[in-house]
Amino acid sequence: MNEFDETRLRDMLDEVRHVSTFIHEQTRSDLDTNLMLAYAVVRAIEVIGEAAARVTEETRNTYPNILWKNIIGMRNRIVHNYNNVNLDIVWQVASENLPQLELQLVAILTNSE
User: Fold this and answer.
1) What's the rounded Cα separation, in Å, for the pair 16 and 101?
2) Which are the contacts of 77, defined by CB distance < 8 A and separation ≥ 6?
3) Are the CB atoms for 22 and 36 separated by under 8 Å?
4) How many domains, in total, are found in the chain?
5) What are 38-69's pLDDT values in tens digits?
6) Can you give the pTM of this predicted structure?
7) 17 in active site
8) 96 Cβ neighbours under 8 A, 6+ residues apart
9) Which is the catalytic residue, given 43, 54, 75, 77?
10) Which domain holds residue 90?
11) Rg of the chain over all Cα atoms, to the nearest angstrom
């Protein structure tokens, strides 16, 4: 893997970990009542998707277990439909999908060292 891709994967991992910190001891309804929490989680998911989009096709093909299209698609939905973000989906991604992504990224980055 090239250095550029490794940097993007580390960016993704950093943002995944930020989301984990943001939602710790929070509930789904907190996204509705805590504007700063909602903004932070949505922004982090957006950055994860942008970093994923910048990972080369070669590296993406090397790690097909990562749902690249879904990650990038989520970023695109947030950016292009910014005024109608579905917080139910955001919560599901943050609480269910990102923990698995963290494990995958750690495994990849540990093997690249």
Assistant:
1) 8
2) 85
3) no
4) 1
5) 999 999 999 999 999 999 999 999 999 999 99
6) 0.94
7) no
8) none
9) 75
10) 3-112
11) 14
